[in-house]
């Protein structure tokens, strides 16, 4: 609550990316590269996540105990770090989805009015 | 689930590993992207670069990820932790305030334990461990003691006669510096008259050997002690400030001391009062100096580097065996020569007193800790349900442990804060009652930080330990049982926890030991004060007059002066009688060997000699059993006469007639040398104490003032009432005879007796009494609170019992019975420990045995009454409760 305004802005963007990542992983664990591709595909190439901003987000989500990370062997035998949702992460996803839907509804009401 | 902050901490420590991990991860991402690009047709050589470009700024990504670790982990975790602790602390304080009885009891117990222990340990640190921080070489300084094996008193002679001193100095090789010193009265003559200051003669190397520089100017050096050197002196800081207003221009000025113009060359730093003096003058020990022949100087020395005190002691003993043969009169038949530590040589017997006080305060601290522990245990057991409930609702073990830890720490901090206050008061109080001459004058007793830290740590550890133990018990045990138990409210009958019982029994036992010690000291002190002195000490005034120089040098001059003064004083209204004395009545004067013509004796006859005027016995109200007192003729020196006391007659003359016998004894001559004089015995006086108020009287001979010149004479005046009110008048009479005379120590005899003989036992009594009282209070609180808690936990069962027919008496019997069991156990253990340990006090108990049954019996009665009362009251309160209310109420 005492944070600066700029970090508030960053937080909104962070929140959106977090939500995308959490949703993507609902269907199963993925590694970082896979997550980028998945978001791209499922948004019909509308959302292009900057690869560079994904990793801070992933690590942050691990800190918050919403994701857990593990090195596993992927396709072609390459070891890659896989992320999966934790039960707490699942709960957080549900909460954020509902928040997001409320926000969308509110926004469209306001915009329609104007 | 592990605690988050724990993991964050771990990750912080393995950050290096994290960096490598991140690099691997990002590289694997790039590889995967490159593969994909190759599959979609990009040139394999180009693919890695394309992947990089697609990625964006790799460095920034790495940095930002690492940044997020730092920010999120460290800051957030710490912030969270701090918030949690702050919340816990607030809750803890609120919780403590809601239970004022418990809080007050625990804080008080902790504070008393901390305060008392810090006080005693501060004294020990400042008096025994490091009383001379201003002397750089104090750790290498030693003193000597020539101990008479026949005497039970510790210590021994540390003053050596001039030639004797020089013999030792020339034969000992263990020391690199040997210093000599002796006290003297310094008579300072100015336009305002003559003042007397406490002075000392010190060898030129004294301050250099001790390792101390002057505050202003310079100290005395060996050059100042040379025979042709100009007379100089240094002054103490205390005197410089008090008498001369800290005037810096004083240095270099000339003062007339003892009739000689002497230059002040320096001011010593504060706290320096070597030999109890305010003025120090240099002296050179010289065999050829006649004036020094009869003087004695204190022998102190500095060990050579690498020489141990044991080695010096062995050498000293060998040399002493040789030297003692040249000075047979200075050595008892059997003696032991010691080299002892600097501090030991001054503190002597008081060391044991201090150690017993330390032991006593240790007991008190244990009682206090046991009390606090019991209080915490009781409280925690009562909260078992609350903790179980919180755990069932999801609080993690770590959170609960943290909360209990914070609670204990808050309590410990409160106790510590109050304890510091108690310690500060305690130190001031102790300094106020500290008797003279028991501790180094230069030691400054004040709160010692290391002692404080130690006791704070101890108190804190106790609080934390006993606050946590039950918590740890509950967090590991099954959750359901405490919750289920709440409904039934039984803890298995009227049993306290085993640990609690052990603690309260231990408290009772330890308190018994303290009470016994205090009781024994009190009885001994009372006995001491009721000892028959053999004279009437009321309304007796002593006024000391330094003599031995100038107009009052010879015995004849002194006699004439004193006779004139006595004549004037005896005619002052309000004066009942007056005489003179040397030393003090009750404590004695000079020491001498005796010989009576016609009686052979193999052993040495030693005893005391009092040099006095006529009416000595009349003034003291001591009976003259046979013969007569001194007359004016005797005082003029016409005949050499002496009076002896009854002990003398019994021991040496075996009860035969004393009058007319010829007695030879040693008296100082005009050079201060001890010479034989033969007197005719003309009277026998009743025996009065002459070795202090508690030791039996020694054989004593009384000679008139004309027999020997003294360095100090005392006026002995009995007044009708309040002697101190007459001091000014009496001083005028003295100055009417000779205005240049200085009057030194002036006080009532009883005050001197109290200062020298009663003060030390009174201190012991004060300290032990305080500890015993505190201990008893703590025990009462402990028993009371333990019974109260036990009963409160089992209110439901009491209600049931009363509902099915038990009357109040039955319930009371159960609870008081519990208390009684603790008491009996505690008393038995306490008595056993007391018998074993009060022996340690034996040196301080002069007239009572360490296992005195009367004292022990009385103490047992006191503790029993206190303990039973403490058990009865909470039990009474509970039995007043209506059983139906209890049964309906879900505790």
Give a short synopsis of this structure.
The complex is a heterodimer of chains A (114) and B (891). Chain A has 114 residues and is an alpha+beta fold.
Descriptive report:
The complex is a heterodimer of chains A (114) and B (891). Chain A has 114 residues and is an alpha+beta fold. Chain A is 63% helix and 14% strand. Chain A has 4 helices and 3 strands. In chain A, strand 2 (67-73) and strand 3 (79-85) form a beta hairpin. Chain B has 891 residues and is α+β, with helices and mostly antiparallel strands. Chain B is built from 26 helices and 22 strands. Chain B has a 6-stranded mixed β-barrel. In chain B, helix 2 packs across helix 4 (58-98). The radius of gyration of chain B is 39 Å and the shape is globular. The interface between A and B is medium-sized, with 22 and 30 residues.
Name the largest protein-protein interface in this structure.
Answer: A-B, 22 and 30 residues
Biggest sheet of chain A: strands side by side, in what order? Answer: 1-3-2
The rounded distance between the terminal residues' Cα atoms of chain B is: 33 Å
| Residue-averaged pLDDT of chain A | 80
**Alpha carbon gyration radius of chain A:** 16 Å
Task: Please tag this protein with its features.
heterodimer; A: 114 residues; alpha+beta; 3-stranded antiparallel beta sheet; 4 helices; 3 strands; disordered N terminus; B: 891 residues; 6-stranded mixed barrel; 6-stranded mixed β-barrel; 53% helix; globular
List the helices and strands and how they pair.
The complex is a heterodimer of chains A (114) and B (891).
Chain A: H1 5-25, E1 30-31, H2 32-42, H3 51-63, E2 67-73, E3 79-85, H4 87-113
Antiparallel strand pairs in A: 1-3, 2-3
Helix pairs in contact in A: 1-3
Chain B: H1 4-13, H2 15-39, H3 47-55, H4 58-98, H5 100-129, E1 141-148, E2 159-161, H6 162-171, E3 175-190, E4 193-203, H7 206-210, E5 216-217, E6 232-235, H8 237-244, E7 254-257, E8 260-267, E9 279-283, E10 296-303, H9 309-323, E11 335-341, H10 342-347, H11 350-382, H12 384-392, H13 397-433, H14 449-476, H15 480-488, H16 498-529, E12 540-546, H17 555-570, E13 575-581, E14 590-596, E15 606-612, H18 616-620, E16 624-627, H19 632-636, E17 641-645, H20 646-652, E18 662-668, E19 674-685, E20 700-704, E21 712-719, H21 727-737, E22 746-748, H22 749-793, H23 795-803, H24 808-837, H25 853-879, H26 883-888
Parallel strand pairs in B: 4-9, 6-8, 15-20, 17-19
Antiparallel strand pairs in B: 1-10, 1-11, 2-10, 3-4, 3-7, 3-10, 5-8, 6-9, 7-8, 12-21, 12-22, 13-21, 14-15, 14-18, 16-19, 17-20, 18-19
Helix pairs in contact in B: 1-4, 2-3, 2-4, 4-13, 5-11, 5-13, 5-14, 5-22, 6-9, 11-14, 11-16, 11-22, 12-14, 12-15, 13-14, 16-22, 16-24, 16-25, 17-21, 22-25, 24-25
């Amino acid at each position: 609550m005492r944070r600066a305004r700029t970090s508030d802005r960053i937080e909104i963007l962070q929140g959106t990316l977090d939500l995308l990542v959490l949703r993507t992983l609902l269907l199963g664990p993925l590694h970082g590269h896979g997550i980028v591709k998945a978001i791209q595909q499922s948004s019909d190439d509308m959302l292009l996540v900057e690869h560079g901003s994904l990793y801070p987000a992933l690590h942050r989500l691990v800190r918050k105990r919403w994701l857990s990370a593990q090195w596993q062997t992927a396709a072609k035998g390459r070891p890659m770090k896989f992320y999966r949702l934790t039960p707490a992460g699942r709960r957080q996803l549900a909460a954020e989805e509902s928040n997001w839907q409320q926000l969308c509804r509110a926004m469209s009401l306001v915009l329609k009015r104007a | 689930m592990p605690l988050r902050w724990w993991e964050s901490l771990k990750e912080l420590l393995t950050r290096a590993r994290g960096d490598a991990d991140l690099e691997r991860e990002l590289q694997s991402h790039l590889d995967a992207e490159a593969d994909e690009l190759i599959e979609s047709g990009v040139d394999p050589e180009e693919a890695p670069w394309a992947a990089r470009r697609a990625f964006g700024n790799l460095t920034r990504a790495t940095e930002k990820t690492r940044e997020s670790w730092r920010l999120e982990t460290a800051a957030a975790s710490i912030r969270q932790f701090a918030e949690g602790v702050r919340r816990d602390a607030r809750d803890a304080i609120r919780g403590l305030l809601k239970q004022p009885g418990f809080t007050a009891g625990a804080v008080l117990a902790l504070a008393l334990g901390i305060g008392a222990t810090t006080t005693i340990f501060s004294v020990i640190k400042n008096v025994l461990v490091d009383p001379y921080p201003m002397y750089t070489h104090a750790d290498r300084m030693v003193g000597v003691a020539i101990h008479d094996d026949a005497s039970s008193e510790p210590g021994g002679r540390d003053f050596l006669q001039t030639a004797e001193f020089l013999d030792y100095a020339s034969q000992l090789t263990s020391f690199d510096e040997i210093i000599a010193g002796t006290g003297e009265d310094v008579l300072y003559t100015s336009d305002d008259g003559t003042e007397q200051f406490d002075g000392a003669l010190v060898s030129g190397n004294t301050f250099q050997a001790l390792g101390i520089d002057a505050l202003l100017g310079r100290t005395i050096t060996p050059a100042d002690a040379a025979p042709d050197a100009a007379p100089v002196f240094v002054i103490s800081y205390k005197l410089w400030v008090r008498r001369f207003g800290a005037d810096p221009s004083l240095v270099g000025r000339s003062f007339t001391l003892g009739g000689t113009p002497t230059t002040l060359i320096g001011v010593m730093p504060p706290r320096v009062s070597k030999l109890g003096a305010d003025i120090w003058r240099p002296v050179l020990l010289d065999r050829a100096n006649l004036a020094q022949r009869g003087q004695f100087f204190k022998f102190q020395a500095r060990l050579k580097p690498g020489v141990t005190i044991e080695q010096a002691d062995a050498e000293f003993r060998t040399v002493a065996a040789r030297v003692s043969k040249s000075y047979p009169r200075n050595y008892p038949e059997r003696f032991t020569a010691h080299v002892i530590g600097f501090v030991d040589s001054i503190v002597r017997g008081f060391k044991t007193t201090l150690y017993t006080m330390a032991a006593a305060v240790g007991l008190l601290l244990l009682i206090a800790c046991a009390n606090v522990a019991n209080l915490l245990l009781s409280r925690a057991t009562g909260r078992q349900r609350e903790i179980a409930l919180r755990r069932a609702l999801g609080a993690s073990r770590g959170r609960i442990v943290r909360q209990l830890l914070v609670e204990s720490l808050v309590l410990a901090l409160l106790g510590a804060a109050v304890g510091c206050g108690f310690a500060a008061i305690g130190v001031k109080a102790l300094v106020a009652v500290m008797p003279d001459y028991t501790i180094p004058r230069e030691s400054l007793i004040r709160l010692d930080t290391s002692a404080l830290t130690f006791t704070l740590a101890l108190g804190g550890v106790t609080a934390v330990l006993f606050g946590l133990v039950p918590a740890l018990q509950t967090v590991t045990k099954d959750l359901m049982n405490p919750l289920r138990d709440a409904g039934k409210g039984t803890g298995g009958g009227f049993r306290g926890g085993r640990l609690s019982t052990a603690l309260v029994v231990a408290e009772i036992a330890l308190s018994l030991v303290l009470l016994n010690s205090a009781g024994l000291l009190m009885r001994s002190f009372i006995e001491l004060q009721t000892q028959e002195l053999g004279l009437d000490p009321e309304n007796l005034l002593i006024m000391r007059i330094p003599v031995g120089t100038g107009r009052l040098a010879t015995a004849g001059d002194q006699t004439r002066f004193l006779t004139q003064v006595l004549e004037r004083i005896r005619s002052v209204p309000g004066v009942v009688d007056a005489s003179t004395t040397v030393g003090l009545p009750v404590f004695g004067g000079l020491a001498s060997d005796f010989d009576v013509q016609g009686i052979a004796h193999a052993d040495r006859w030693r005893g005391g000699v009092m040099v006095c005027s006529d009416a000595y016995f009349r003034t003291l109200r001591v009976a003259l059993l046979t013969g007569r007192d001194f007359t004016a003729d005797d005082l003029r020196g016409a005949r050499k006469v002496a009076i002896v006391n009854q002990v003398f007659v019994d021991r040496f003359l075996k009860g035969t007639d004393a009058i007319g016998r010829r007695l030879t004894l040693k008296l100082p001559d005009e050079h201060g040398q001890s010479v034989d004089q033969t007197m005719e015995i003309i009277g026998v006086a009743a025996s009065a104490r002459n070795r202090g108020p508690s030791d039996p009287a020694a054989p004593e001979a009384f000679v008139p003032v004309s027999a020997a010149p003294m360095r100090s004479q005392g006026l002995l005046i009995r007044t009708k009432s309040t002697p101190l009110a007459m001091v000014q008048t009496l001083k005028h009479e003295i100055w009417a005879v000779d205005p240049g005379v200085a009057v030194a120590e002036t006080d009532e005899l009883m005050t001197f007796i109290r200062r020298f003989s009663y003060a030390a036992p009174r201190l012991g009594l004060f300290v032990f009494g305080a500890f015993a009282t505190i201990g008893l209070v703590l025990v009462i609180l402990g028993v009371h609170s333990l019974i109260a808690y036990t009963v409160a936990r089992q209110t439901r069962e009491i209600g049931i019992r009363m509902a099915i027919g038990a009357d109040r008496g039955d319930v009371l019997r159960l609870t008081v019975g519990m208390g009684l069991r603790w008491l009996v156990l505690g008393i038995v253990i306490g008595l056993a420990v007391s018998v074993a340990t009060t022996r340690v006090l034996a040196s301080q108990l002069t007239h009572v045995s360490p296992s005195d049954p009367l004292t022990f019996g009385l103490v047992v009665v006191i503790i029993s009454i206190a303990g039973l009362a403490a058990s009865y009251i909470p039990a009474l309160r509970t039995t007043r409760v209506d059983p139906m209310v209890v049964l309906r109420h879900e505790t």
